[in-house]
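pls design
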């Protein structure tokens, strides 16, 4: 892919250079016509030498090269209807509430949401002036949230949520997902914690080598009023790069009133599906369930095969014959040393001075291989090797036949599901009134930026273009500055020289 990008850039440079050379040639012809006038003007300006010739720069002097193009930051501004927009470029946390909550039933030292948040530029920013929200602490609970401009109600318009993440230090174990908090009279952002009801949870998460991109929504059971989390299937895409390349990536979730959804990274779809068909557990339960009171009959036969009751053991079947017998055809190899032991006491071994025969017993030298056996085929008593017994049959068993009484694997009968319901519009979720980050991370300096919630996809794409698009351009320019210099320098050469340089470059 990188080679294709470079090739496209260089071919574009070639096109520009050919055009510039053609224009330069036309200008040279025009200048030839007016040489005398130019000489006169130069003389009037005392720019001629004594011989009437114009001074020129030495040929060997290098031509200054223009600096590589830079990307100037400008804070994105929403260009249409939206429910939330935050670029953090004011440099403050105005409008955001840092939670003061404590988790229940855990050690006091880690119960507090005391992780630090800061608004600052990235440590190695390629776009000066661009600020974001940074999770600063490791091994601490963090929680921060902000109210939407107005609650989002799931009715006839889609929901589009997008924001940017940069794992500046990589990520060992931790999340960078966002929660859309459910509208409620009990919602208190000062006490935002893991148990605060949310409608949607979306974003990247990683621990060990498990790379995830969550999309979870809480579905309300229309019969019981209870909520249950529904998880989207795992994306087919390899997510590792987004956690390890230390680049800024934009994560987008699109939910439509027809129950379809799309998940995008860097404006490319990496997962899609339907709320009715592609969530686990399923939104709607089955209409029938197995009867929990049903029991398998005692005479139910689940055996597909049985031993043939009519089979008889053959009269010549010897169950006592051994599996192995001595090879009667084997012959002891020449040179076998019957009177030599394979291992002998080490003749160089010495009894330790502190050896106590009363406590340790009679001392014996450790065993070592007998050097006399090194050149012999073997030592000690020779025995014939064992081979498979051709007459061995083992214990006789009747052959297996199909069971004439086989009834199949027993299953409880089906009965109507008393908890059954059918919700054909799971998109109609609990309204959302706030956005929040409730996270634990073993890695610090996770950078968040450009949160945006809207119902208009074109407005979301424009926000992404004005925000993340600048970061992408700046990061790209910083990675390949040589390419830009090359394109500028190459216009000083002929097309033939350019082709040669292109070949070398690729």
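designed seq:
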């Amino acid at each position: 892919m990188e080679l294709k990008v470079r090739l496209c850039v260089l071919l574009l440079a070639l096109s520009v250079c050919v055009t510039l050379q053609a224009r330069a040639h036309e200008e040279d012809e025009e200048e030839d016509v007016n040489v005398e006038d130019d000489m006169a003007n130069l003389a009037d300006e005392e720019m001629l030498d004594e011989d009437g010739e114009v001074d020129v720069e030495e040929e060997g002097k290098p031509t200054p090269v223009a600096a590589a193009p830079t990307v100037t930051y400008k804070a994105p501004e929403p260009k249409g209807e939206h429910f939330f927009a935050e670029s953090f470029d004011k440099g403050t946390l105005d409008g955001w509430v840092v939670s003061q909550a404590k988790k229940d039933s855990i050690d006091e030292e880690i119960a507090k949401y005391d992780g630090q948040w800061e608004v600052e530029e990235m440590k190695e920013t390629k776009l000066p002036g661009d600020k974001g929200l940074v999770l600063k602490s490791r091994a601490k609970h963090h929680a921060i949230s902000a109210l939407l401009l107005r609650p989002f109600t799931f009715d006839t318009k889609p929901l589009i949520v997008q924001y940017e993440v940069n794992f500046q230090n990589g990520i060992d174990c931790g999340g960078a997902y966002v929660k859309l908090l459910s509208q409620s009279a009990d919602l208190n952002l000062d006490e935002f914690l893991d148990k605060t009801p949310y409608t949607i949870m979306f974003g990247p998460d990683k621990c060990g080598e498990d790379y995830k991109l969550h999309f979870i929504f809480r579905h309300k059971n229309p019969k019981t009023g209870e909520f249950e989390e529904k998880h989207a299937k795992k994306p087919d895409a390899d997510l590792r790069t987004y956690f390890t390349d230390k680049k800024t990536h934009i994560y987008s979730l699109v939910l439509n009133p027809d129950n379809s959804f799309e998940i995008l990274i860097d404006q490319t779809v990496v997962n899609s599906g339907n709320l009715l068909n592609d969530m686990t557990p399923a939104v709607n339960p089955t209409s029938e369930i197995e009867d929990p009171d049903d029991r398998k009959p005692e005479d139910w036969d689940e055996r597909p095969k049985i031993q043939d009751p009519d089979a008889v053991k053959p009269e010549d079947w010897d169950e006592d014959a051994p599996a192995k017998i001595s090879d009667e055809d084997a012959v002891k190899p020449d040179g076998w040393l019957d009177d030599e032991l394979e291992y002998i006491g080490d003749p160089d071994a010495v009894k330790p001075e502190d050896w106590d025969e009363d406590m340790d017993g009679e001392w014996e030298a450790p065993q070592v291989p007998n050097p006399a056996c090194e050149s012999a085929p073997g030592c000690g008593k020779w025995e014939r090797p064992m081979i498979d017994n051709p007459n061995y049959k083992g214990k006789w068993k009747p052959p297996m036949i199909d069971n004439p009484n086989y009834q199949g694997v027993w299953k409880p009968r089906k009965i109507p599901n008393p908890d059954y319901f059918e919700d054909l519009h799971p998109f109609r979720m609990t309204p959302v009134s706030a956005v929040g980050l409730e996270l634990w991370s073993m890695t610090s300096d996770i950078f968040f930026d450009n949160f945006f919630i809207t119902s208009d996809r074109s407005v979301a794409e424009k926000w992404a273009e004005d925000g993340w698009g600048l970061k992408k351009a700046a990061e790209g320019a910083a990675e390949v500055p040589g390419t830009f210099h090359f394109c500028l320098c190459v216009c000083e050469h002929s097309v033939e020289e350019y082709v040669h340089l292109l070949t070398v470059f690729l």
